[in-house]
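Subject: Protein record for review, amino acid sequence with backbone structure tokens
Why sent: The fold of this protein is of interest and is recorded here as tokens.
Notation: Tokens come from a learned vocabulary of local backbone shapes, not from coordinates.
Attached in line: The record itself begins immediately under this heading.
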Amino acid sequence: MTQVVSLSLYRFDGALARVWAFAMMGLARPAMARVPGIGFWKLCGSGTGEGFTPLPNLGVYAILCTWPDLATAQAAHATAPIFASYRAKASENWTLYMSANSVRGAWAGQTPFEASAAGTTGPLAALTRATIKPGILARFWHRVPNISRVIGQDPNVMFKIGIGEVPWLHQVTFSIWPDAARMANFARTGPHADAIRAVRDEGWFREELYARFTLLSDEGSWGGSSPLNRPEAP
């Protein structure tokens, strides 16, 4: 069997729904642990804008999970009460199902994703997760606006969001690209490349993980449609 990773995004409108979503960052944990078939999982908030800022966005939350296979993942999202509660409260939701094709590093002391031998010639997703050293927080977040501006203007990126478990200290970036070449071109040039050099030279992170994924399927919408159906740049 090939491990499947799901990333679910939920948008909440109105004060009561947002208070509920914020409270569930703590209250949802027992219910998540009881979902049949679930492996590694994390509840995450997001940043303002497209998520790549230190200011929290109280209207968007994410749940990332691993599953033994696609059927188990889809069945859990369809039937588990905790996912039904999130859908009922959210004004919009989108779930993406993926399989990892490369993984490097650790998250909370473990490697949560299992890389499969299968590759992809179509769109792919990239996820980075880092625990930032408290002493370099100011330098890290000083870099982020330039990276956010560049990725926001890049016509090749199909989707991007920044999420995290703990504001400021734990940062997850997630993006979808038409192919590996265009993703690599972004990573190797401009502010993003400068930040990568600073990470290596100055040791910004206590822990880091990098993963690439093959896209399997998705459910729901984000911004009125599936990001996978939006036109890509030529």
In short: The CA atoms of residues 126 and 212 lie 5 Å apart.
